[in-house]
Amino acid sequence: MATACDIAPKRAEPEGDGHASVAVEHLRKNFAGHTVLNGISLSVNRGETLAVLGRSGTGKSVLLRLIIGLDTPDSGSIRILGQTIAGLALDRMGAIRKRMGFLFQHAALYDSLTVGENVAFPFVHHRREMSRSEREGRVKQLLAEVGMESDLDKMPSDISGGMQKRVGLARALALEPEILLLDEPTAGLDPISSAEIDDLILKLQRERQMASIVVTHDLHSAKTIANRLALLNEGDVAIEGTFEDLERSGIEFVKEFLKQS
Predict the structure, then answer these.
(1) pLDDT by residue (tens digit) across 113-151?
(2) pTM
(3) In the chain, which ranges are continuous DSSP H helix?
(4) Domains of the chain
(5) Cα–Cα distance for residue pair 169/103, rounded to 1 Å
């Protein structure tokens, strides 16, 4: 079976209507006097994938935490599906979070739950009107989408890291999100597993047309799955554009990053 390693990249084409699904403007965040984000502005539309790149400690994962409302910016604004999230009551922020799916860096599966129970978790807590048979059917469907339908009753410790990422992705998709946030989806995986995750992300993006933000160190993955890339350096966006834009850049930091990645 061909993977992203041996086929030409096929990026999802945006279907946005001009209104960004996620828009951050002049976002600033400091920790203990250290500037992590220095007034950055980025946006992503429906059907589009934005990859956020940068060295360790440049604020990539902080950006995701701010978008999902786990941290609060020092200044600037974040709009999710047209709604400014600053100062929102917990119930309204919770409603917005249900429209976002999040894949954690290490999948973050619950060790005491089976694969199926992990994927069912969002339904149990947020779709209590679903019958047990409806829930089980939806779990099987989601696991089939990520190629894990035969592993329903396994424990997370019984499956590989790449398989755990697939299960985490299935769980992130459970509530039919309009926005998908992915934190290092290929981190710690071998090249074959990484390529399989890239192919899966491309497939899901073509089928679901979500707005996706991917934080990654993996330049090959970013080139494969993203419409646009944003490279962070010392709290600022050093460059934003297509991979070809990065390759053509005369900015020294960009050239060094591409050379070392």
Answers:
(1) 999 999 999 998 888 888 899 999 999 999 999 999 999
(2) 0.87
(3) 60-67, 90-97, 115-126, 132-145, 161-172, 191-208, 219-225, 243-248, 252-260
(4) 22-260 (3.40.50.300)
(5) 6
